[in-house]
Amino acid sequence: MKWYGLKEKITNKEFWHSPEGCLIILASAMPLAFTTWMTLLNNFTIEKAAFTGTEIGILQSLREVPGFLAFAAVFLLLFMRERTLAITSMLLLGGGVFITGFFPSAMGLYITTVIMSIGFHYYETMQMSLTLQWMSKDEAPKSMGRQTAARSFTSLIAYAMIWIVMEFMGLDYAWVYAAGGGLCIMLTLYVIFALPNHKPVEEQHKKMILRKRYWLFYALTFMGGARRQIFVVFAGFLMVEKFGYDVATITLLYLANHVISMWFAPKVGQWIAKWGERRALIVEYIGLILVFVGYGLTESAEIAAGLYVLDHLFFAFAIAQRSYFQKIADPKDIASTAGVSFSINHIAAIGIPFLFGYFLWSESPAFVFYAGAIMAVISLILALNVPHDPKEGNEVVIGHVKPTPVAAE
Question: Which pTM value belongs to this model?
Fold first, then answer.
């Protein structure tokens, strides 16, 4: 398989000791824990902890809280470097998943979920920050694509591991959780003890940064968070409720998503590096308009499955939002803004699942996806305001904001 630059590097020992090698190893470790947690969650909570809709709703709300509070990562950087925080977060993620199966109660699952989620969201924040700091503006989109491909590869390993041990070995949930979390921890320990301690090129601000001239990036990030909820919460539910997909079929859809992403995400990174963020974002949002309208109109289970896979593939275009920010940002703002952007991204996670589920889904599932199409139209309008050549001083086509003097911050 040609991973657009990674295939040639993968046999080069020096590559794995480079900053990008470190990022790819961490990106590979994360799904071993998180995919295990997510795949087993519904069955484990029902079979072992007797969850009802109330408890699972509380658990999922608790899971999103660390994402909303991701801006606080900048304050932790007063005490540790970004790489240290990324590694610490990975250990929390792996450790939270490792112990999940040993606490089959509501309170036990709430606590382990929060531990896991803190690790997951703070790692995601630092992964974005370190990529934008360590990679050049030309290489960053390609590197993010390769990291996404690595995630998809190890997600497939996690799915295969779970299927084999549950189907043929009959292992208890606790040991499967321990295996997924343990593998994540092992890869993280490899990064700690075997790889150099790379440092950022620019010393980062150790305070929360909100700049008016980044307003378009903030808006795109918020709309991206809203779009994510349409897919994560409602698209999969549509497959089950309307089209009667069973667990095996849903799992096949997940596998298809990751197999295609292994090829597609690096390609998207190449496209963005060549054609620019503006074109990539426009393609993404036009595609999403068609996908969401398709969800609302289709009565075919096969077409719905195709839309589900296509919907997932468009997540790769989120690379364009991040590389756009890299080009317009003061390099010292990256770590702080990475945390702020994750908080903005999760604002929608608090309200959309409840509001859309209660007011729209109850009337007609199609209304949810038509609302998603309207959000994609808004995103398209925002994307048209991204310049062809974004940089400091050329952040937007319309609506320039005069930079705030540093002394006034």
Answer: 0.80
